[in-house]
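Tutorial, part two.
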Amino acid sequence: MIVIADPAEMQEMARGWRAQGCKIALVPTMGYFHKGHLSLMEYGRKVGDKLAVSLFVNPTQFGPAEDLDRYPRDLKRDTALAREAGVDVLFTPAAEQMYPAGYQTFVTVEEVSQGLCGASRPGHFRGVATVVLKLFNIVMPHVAVFGEKDYQQLVVVKRMVADLNLPIEVVGRPIVREEDGLAMSSRNTYLNPEERRAALCLYRALQEAQGLMSARKSHRDEILAAVRRVISQTPHTRIDYLALVDPETLKEVDAVRGSARLALAVWVGHTRLIDNCLLVEL
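Running the prediction step on this input gives:
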């Protein structure tokens, strides 16, 4: 595995791969790898001739009061895990390489970035869309692989690719969970033991909603009321948002007709966690 920090060097390698007729798969990450990241790499390895993984804690997607400075980092560990996963190149640029002096160009995906996490984190998806487009231009992938845990991010990237006519297939892959159901996240490391137990309410809430679907109770109000009840009864938690939305437009729906995406964000102690699931009408 090659480790590259310079965007120009990465771009030159990508040009060489394309000249050889290789299909490039890209897994964009912010590092501190867990099994969820590794599952994306495994998929990328299967669908591409060359697998690139970017590791960049992107400052433009963090708000002033968010956790940019304390976001978990361990480059040595991540490098070893990427090598074991069969990654061909690990792209690790510095912030000043991605946003050099005088940088002033940003990408805004309008509607699908507005609600959910977009409402709670103003400017977040502007930073996401900008850095992802830059990564696409540098790595030049044929396919890009994202996890469904950050579901709104996936929708934003797909919308950007479609709107800007980018010749890239964007693939969303299933959430990887701990044995007890907690969605894997680098931010889980912030949780103390008591908060870690409390965090399971997110998964229990999603299961409760799935149970309502089995009972053919598909109206938004009863689904969100059940989800709210599960979370509000759990100590150390504070709901940021609960929403039942169309899987493509992310607009709120009044009932599950066909399918809908249940999305939630919950503060557990000082840590904000997100999760989601697809609800299907029976």
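The two ends are 47 Å apart (CA to CA). In part three we will examine how such features are distributed along the chain.
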